Amino acid sequence: MTKTPPLDWMPAGRTVSLRPAGKWWDAVRVPRVIGLEALGRSGGRGAVMEDPGGGLLYWLVPAGEASGRQTAEGARILVLGDTTHVAVPGPQRTSGPRRRVPPTRSNTLTDPSRLHNASAQAAALRIPTLQSLTLE
After folding, report:
1. Cross-sheet strand order for the sheet of 78-80
2. Listed residue (21, 106, 14) closest to 60, CA to CA
3. Which of these, 36, 113, 25, lies nearest to 68 by C-alpha position?
4. Does domain 16-131 have CATH number 3.30.2250?
């Protein structure tokens, strides 16, 4: 059973703070076109952050449990662990980086297997769309 981390890593208000991945959680970075599909398939469990400027969604997963998983070629899904920092938005932030699914004490982390399955299914549907968005 995965231990739920304390929520003291969350910034307050409308602020955005850099937090080290690998300490309380790892983050899985997913392109928005795949991420929105995966969000629907994963049942909305776990914290999800959105960076609309970068066209990315970030899921928080238990530290160390998502690394090494294979993703579909071209999906551009990346696990951010203990060598990276993640911009974490506060609960009242409504523009720029913001929370798509807010973390709560009972809904903080996403099960990495559930996310992997949802993102693999989403990638199978959305990779042609993602590739057409790539600038050449």
Report:
1. 78-80, 26-31, 56-61, 48-51, 98-101
2. 21
3. 113
4. yes
Distance CA 19, CA 36 (A): 24
Please give the structure tokens belonging to residue 86.
Answer: 């993640």
Q: Which residues of the chain have pLDDT under 70?
A: 1-6, 68-74, 126-136
Could you give the CA distance from residue 46 to residue 109 in angstroms, rounded to a whole number?
Answer: 4
Phi, psi (rounded to 5 degrees) for 122: -65, -40
The mean of the pLDDT values for the chain is 82
Distance CA 38, CA 114 (A): 10
134 CB-contact burial (10 Å; exposed 0-12 / middle 13-18 / buried 19+): exposed
Q: In the chain, what are the domain boundaries?
A: 16-131
Pair 119, 38: CB distance under 8 Å: yes
What length is written for the chain? 136
This prediction's pTM: 0.83
The residue type found at 88 is V
